[in-house]
## 1
Amino acid sequence: MYIFQSREITKDFVKRAETNGFEALVLTIDFALFGLRHINLRNQFRPPPNVQSILLNKYKDSNTIKNFIDFSDPDADWSYITWLKSITKLPIVVKGVLTAEDAIAAADAGASAIIVSNHGARQLDSLPSTIEALPEVVKAVGRRIEVYMDGGIRDGTDVYKALGLGARMVFIGRPALWGLTHDGEKGVKKILEILKKELDNAMGITGCSKLTDINQDRVVHESYYARL
């Protein structure tokens, strides 16, 4: 979910999620404005005109559609999470956290978990990679809430590093899309199998018999050896 200007749309989405058995809401907070995506500008990328979101069907003949198109609310603050908690019993996962300050603020506002994410590095140039930001965020919230991570996961060793630096779980995007493009659902399953095999291999080589054996002592920054 995004932080919509129209709270009626948010309420509708929450109701849909609850009705369809969703177990949590993921709220993306790093989309206050649409980023200047230079690669899209250079490539003259435009969304295909025949692609429509089924989420818009209810509003296509309503003025609410304008609020959806201009959906992000740049004036929103952490009280939005408090409001969202007041209309649902589903746990709220806050996505788009890169700093200790935001991690603490999300926890204070009532988030059940956070996702360290930089929106695929598409929103703003020069943002830190998520694996670089992860340790700071984990240290800031401790055991108060769970910390997840997305971005940059390309093989099983990347999963290993993220778990070692404190992530409870990782999300993948591009690899799943590559598998989908290659062979549909079977391709996605194959990607997941490859990642699992690579993670199992990394665990075996480093002497980890279970996921909880992977800890910060087993991961060093690439600059470590340059300083020796």
## 2
Amino acid sequence: MKIQNALLLSLAVLASSAAAQTTIKINGYGGTDPAVVGDLINKFVKPALAKDKITVVYEPLQGDYNKSLTTLLAAGNAGDVFYLPAETLSGFVATGKVLPLNGVVSTSPYIKSLNTAFTQGGKVYGIAKDFNTLTLVYNKDLFDEAKVAYPDNDDTWTDLQNKLTTLKKNLGNEYYGICLQPNFDRFGAFAYATGWNQFDSKGKTNLADARFAEAFNFYTGLAKNKVGITPSEVSEGWTGGCLKTGKVAVAVEGGWVVNFLRDNAPNLKFGTALMPKNNKTAKRGNFLYTVGWAINAGTKNKSAATKVLNILTSPAVQQYVLEQGLAIPSRTALGENAYFKKTDAGAVNSRLVFQGASDGNVKSFSFGPQGPDWSKPINDALAAVLSGQKSSADALKKAQQDMNTFQNR
């Protein structure tokens, strides 16, 4: 009997121990993210949760992340915690599979515009893990050679246009003022500077709005006399590539361009300025490119998942990520971090990317509930005008027709 009781006691202890072990699965991107998140788990999450007997594993979703996550959520197999891209927020919220974080996680330490990026219907569904905004990144040598002042944080649209026009005139046919991506993901920042809104109260997009036309005409007008060119005109695929050639003075890009230039144009001396201000509104426009940490509404381990999310967005983790040059932190207080006070080109770029999140008309880069195809009418219009195939008026008329057809589907 004693042996039997001892055996039962041992089994009970083992069962209790097993029950106490909790595994939190995280879904996120592939590529370099498994190494980055794995590092954060080992350095910060594991030590903090050791006494809680919580194990954390990262399972990357390869290929189309949004499609893969949608499938896993529908099947009930998604992670307890997962990346939530702001650009596809509406679609994921509509599934009912994302846990509202109101009253679960404090949002007050984070940049207000980032909280807004993950808010829908008054509910917050994600905490930004990091972010990027757009800046003007410029080739110092070209401005010096042309004897033109660098773009600066006080420039208006007209100031920038005058600087680029003079630079082109002084340097000649082989050089260009700015690289113009024919896509909403760059142009849209200029539209927001005018006060234009992506959707009206009925969820429709008005491309006939005079403010949208103002931005469209300014942006495409920069191509006049080849002051501005598209990436394909210098055999590149994006504006960072334009800078790399040494033939283009300015690109509208985020912080991701810094490492690209260091690796691909190590001798290029670059500077960074905030986006220019619209002449009428005196405001800049900008995008927030951000991915948040979210919690699966169906998790059986809500408390443990919340602990993991809080650690991954903690001051210690965000400071580490910043100082490693991995990303820009979402916590407001880190704007005072010593890293941002450095004067090297990379640190200056990071500081202005951070500042851009709270300066002017800043909106989340997103497509709305119908997904990425929303931007196609705008992209087509930009491409048509920048290539000289259509006038601005004709392109905008066609874009509105196409947008109406798309939104009425």
## 3
Amino acid sequence: MYFTKNLQRIYLSILVIIPIILIILPATYFDNGKSICLSVVLLNKQCYACGMTRAIQHLIHFDFAEAWSFNKLSFIVLPLIILSYINAIKKVFSKC
């Protein structure tokens, strides 16, 4: 993907700011509220990703038991997200 220098800086800033915001937010920030998952809203059934946001937020804050109770797949998904972020940051720096 071709980025100008300014767009590279903005993209890199977003990649850095999002995890910082998630770390600053309390672990219980996403625990309450109505589900926006389409399978829950339309079919009233949970999908494999239901609870993933809450589970990853608890994993970020090292609350492993709570993360496990929300979604067991989060222990696989979070490392993949971290690797994806690292690769995206490497791509931005390699084009600078």
